[in-house]
Amino acid sequence: MKLKIVWIGKTKDPAIQSLTTEYLKRISRFAEVEGVQISDESAVLKLREKSGSRPAHALVLLDSRGKQLTSEELAQFLQNHQDRNPQPLAFAIGPADGFKSDALKSANALLSLGRMTLAHELARVVLLEQVYRAFTILNGHPYHTGH
Predict the structure, then answer these.
(1) How far apart are the two ends of the chain, measured CA to CA in Å?
(2) What whole-number distance in Å separates Cα of residue 49 and Cα of residue 60?
(3) Fold exhibited by the domain 2-146
C-alpha cells in the first residue's frame, strides 16, 4: 500500500517535526509512506488529477464534519482500501479554517479526529499515530493492546 500524508503549512515546532519523522518511520515498516508539506489547498486538489484513466490518489480529507472512526475501524478502512483500490491513498489535513467546497466534493472520504478542535500540527501527529496504530492492529503487533 502507498500512503501520502499531506499537510498545509510549514512546521514551526521542532517537537512536531520530530514526532512526524518518528511516526512516518514507524508506518514505513508496514507501507510505503511519504509525508508532504504543501503550500495551499490547490495542491491537495492536484492529488486527484488523473493518471491515465484513474485519479492519481484516493483522497481522504481530515475535517471536523467527517466521520469519526475507532482505531479498529480505521484499520478496517485501510484494509478495505488496500483490498479494493489500487490507487495510492492520500490523507490531507487542511487549513485552519477547513477545506473549501471544491476539495470536499473531490474527496473519496471525510474523516474527523473528533469533535474537539486540535491545533493543526497536533492533528497531524494524532493522524500519524492512528495510522501507525491501525497498521499494528492489522498486523497483530502488540502496540495497540499495550497502550
Answers:
(1) 25
(2) 14
(3) Alpha/beta knot (3.40.1280)
Count the neighbouring beta carbons within 10 Å of the beta carbon of residue 5: 22
- List, as own/partner pairs, every contact residues 99-104 make where C-beta atoms lie below 8 angstroms and the sequence separation is at least 24, other chains included: 99/41, 99/44, 99/61, 99/63, 100/41, 102/41, 102/45, 103/41, 103/44, 103/45, 103/61, 104/61, 104/63
Alpha-carbon Rg of the chain, whole angstroms? 14
Kindly list the domain boundaries of the chain, sorted by start residue: 2-146
Q: What is the pLDDT of residues 7-65, one digit of tens each?
A: 988 888 999 999 999 999 999 999 999 999 998 888 888 888 876 766 689 999 999 88
CA–CA separation, 104 and 16 (whole Å): 26
Which amino acid appears at position 45 of this protein?
A: L
Beta strands in 16-132 (DSSP E): 32-38, 50-51, 54-55, 58-68, 89-93, 109-112
Nearest alpha carbon to residue 8 among 27, 48, 35: 35
pLDDT digits (tens, 9 = 90+) for 128-137: 999 999 999 9
**Amino acid residing at 38:** I
